[in-house]
Amino acid sequence: MLSDEVIEKVVERLAVRMEQANTYILEKIGKSIKKIGTLTPTQAHQLVQTLQYGGDYDKIVKELARITKLNVADIYEIFKEVAKKDYEFAKQFYDFRNKKYIPWDENKQLQEQVKALAKITANEYINLTKTSAVAFGWRGKDGTVTFKGLKKTYYDLLDEAVLNVGQGKEAFNSAMYRRLKEIGGGGIQVIFPTTYIDKNGVEKNRVMRADSAVRMQMKGALRNMHNEIQQQFGEEFDADGVEISVHLSPAPDHEQVQGRQFSNAEFEKFQNDEDAVSYDGIEFPAEFEGHDRRSISQYNCYHYVFSIVLGVNKPQYSNEQLQDIINKNNEGFEFDGKHYTTYQGTQLQRQIETEIRKQKDTQIMARASGNDELVAESQQKISQLTNKYKQLSEASGLPTAIDRIRVSGYHKVKVKATNETPKPAIKKNNLKANEIFIKANDTQKIDNFFLEYYKNEEHLRPFQKERYNEILERKKQGYKDEKIKLDSIENCNKLLRRINTEIEGNEIKNTDIRLVAEATDVLYNNSLKSPAIMDDLKRNKAYLRAKEDTQGVANTLMNTITLNNKDFSNYDEFKKMSVENTSLHKHFDGKEHSWWSPVAEGNETKEIITHEFGHRLQSEIVSNVYFESGINKKGFEYFFKKYGKTYSNGHRMLDVPYRTIRRDLIYEPIRRLQQKTGMTQKEIIDKYVSMYGKKDYDEMFAETFANSQLGKSNELGDELINFLIELGEWEK
User: Fold this and answer.
1) First vs last C-alpha separation in the chain
2) What values do phi and psi take at 284, rounded to 5?
3) Does 182 map to a domain?
4) What pLDDT sits at residue 428?
5) Average pLDDT, the chain
6) Domain assignment of residue 615, given as a range
7) Looking at the structure, do residues 547 and 681 belong to the same domain, yes or no?
8) Rounded distance, CA 504 to CA 498, Å?
9) Could you report the per-residue pLDDT of 249-271, keeping only the tens digit for each?
10) Which of 134, 311, 364, 673 is 20 to 30 A from 381 via CA?
11) What confidence tens digit (pLDDT) does each residue in 341-356 have?
C-alpha cells in the first residue's frame, strides 16, 4: 500500500498544474488591464473589442484545456498504482484462505474495474474545470460576494478598466487596486454542483480555490476507490475484519481508533454511530465529547480501511507505537504564546500555506498589471507569512511542504522602503457606559449568603479569605444604595468580585468596554437568580476572559466564559452582527427563522453572553444532581479532566447519565408544551428554536434560555423558565 507521503506527492502534482493555470489566467488578465491603462478611452474601447473576440480569452481557454488533459492522463496512472499496491497487500489473505490470487498484470478484470473508477474521477475533474464551472469571487457595491464565470469575470474586468481610463496612471491603478486584490487573492475558484444552507438559510453552491479543490477531489476519489476494491477483495478471500490505517498527527476523535482491527460486525457498529469494541477489546462509545462520532474514511477523514482475516497477522502498529503517536501529538509545541497539538500545528500550516499562495497570486496579477502599490503590499505580506511559516515549522518540528507554497510565475521583488511615519490609529470615543443600580439590602443579602458559609469553614482558600475580609469591611462601613458606572475593567471587576467572579487576563483590554459592561451586567444579575451557580460560587471562583483564538464568538468551559476579543473589539460592528443574527430571515423552506434567538430591540448584543451563561447554568444544575446522588464534586471533576478526551469505562459510566439529564432539561419543557398545544416535538422545535439552537440539545437549551431572558420570550422560553422555577433552579 502507498504511504500517505507518496499519495500526497502524486496528488500535489495535479494541484501544482492547476496553480500554473491560475497563474497563466491572472497574468493574462493583468497584462490586458495594463495595456488598457496606457490608452485613451477610445483606444481602450477598441482594444477591449479585440481582446474579447478571439484574443486572450481564447488563449486562456486553450491553456485550461491543456492542463486538464495532462491531469486526466495522470489520474489513470495514479489510480492504477494505488490499486496495484492494495492488491499486493491483500495477497497474504488470499493465500491464508487458499483462494486463487491472480497477479495484477494478468488480472484484466480488476484492471478494467480500476480504469472505470478512474474514468469517473476523470470525468468529474473535467466537469469541475470547464469554463462554466470555473469562477472568480466578485464583490458588489453592497458588499455581497457573487461568483462569476471565467468569461464573465474577464469581460467585466476589462469593462471596469475602460471606465477608469483617462484619469492618469496613478488614478487608474488606485481605481483598479481593490478589484485586482480581490481577483488575485481569490484566484480561480471551482463551483461545485453540491449545495449547502448558510446561516441565513440561503441555499448556495460550494465554492473552493481550484488547487484546493483538486487536492480534495483526488484524495477523496483515491480513498473511495481503495475502499471499494478492498471490499471486493474481502468478499473474495472471506475477510472477517478490517484494519484502519495510521497517520501522524491524527484528529482528536480518531486518534484512538487508527491502527485498530475490528470484526466486520463491530466496525459496522462504529460506522453507524453505535457503541463498538475493537478486536483487542477497546470500547468506543457512540459519541465523542458529546457529539456523534465521525465515521472512518468518510467526509474529511482520509484514513483507509483494509479488509483482513483476523488473527492472520498482527496490526501494522503495536499499542506502544500508537500511544507514542498520541503522546507526541498531545505533547505538541508552543508557538506565539499558545500550546498546539501537532494536529493543530498541521492545520495551522495548511492555513498559512493557502494564504501565502493567495498573496503570491495577488503579486503576480499586480505585477502583470503594473500596480506597484499592490505589488509592494502583497510582497510584504508574503515575507511576513513565509517567516511565520518557517518559525512554526521550527517550533513544531513538522516538515514543511514547499510544493504547497510554490507558485509558478512568482518572483520575489524588492519592496521600496518608506520614510513616512505611520498614522496613529484613531481611537473612537465610547458611548455613555452602562450603569447598574444596587440597593443596600440586596448587597447585604449577598454578603450574608457568603458570610454564612465562610463562618462554618475551617480552612478558607486565599480568594475566600479576601472576599471574607471585604464583606466584614463593608459591614463595618454600613450598607447604602449604590450606582456603579461600568466604564472600566476595574469597575466591572469590582462588581463581579461580589459574587466571586473575576475578569482575568490582559487580552480583555482589547475588547470594547461597552460589551464587557453588558457581559458584567448579565453575569451578575443572572448568577443571583441561580441557586446552583451561587452555591458553586461559595466554593469556587468564576472567570470572565477574552482571547482571539477562542472557539466561536464566546464559549463556556467549567467556571469560565471566554469572549473572542476580535469579535468583541468594536461595539458597532458587534451590534450589526448581533442584529443580523437575531433577526428573522426567509429560509429555503419558505418560513422565517433567525440564526440566534430573537430578542427585544436593544438587547441584541446581550444574546451571546446570555447564551453562554445558559450553558453554565445547565452544567451546574446537572452537576448538582450528581452530588446529591452521592458523587463527590472533586471526584466528578477528576473523572472529566482525566477521561474527558479518551475512551474509558469510567468516562462512559459518568457520561451517559450526565448527557441524559442535560437533554431532559430542554426536552421536558418541550413535552409539556406538546401537551398544552397538541403540536409535535418537531413542530415546536421548528417554530420556537433558532437555527443555531437546532444543532444539539445543549445549544437548544442555551438558545431557549437566552430567548427567555431578553424581552422577547416565546412559549418554549416561558415553559423552560417555569420548569426551572419548579425545580428550584431559578428565581424570578
Assistant:
1) 65
2) -125, 105
3) yes
4) 35
5) 80
6) 571-732
7) no
8) 15
9) 888 888 899 999 999 999 999 98
10) 134
11) 988 998 899 889 889 9
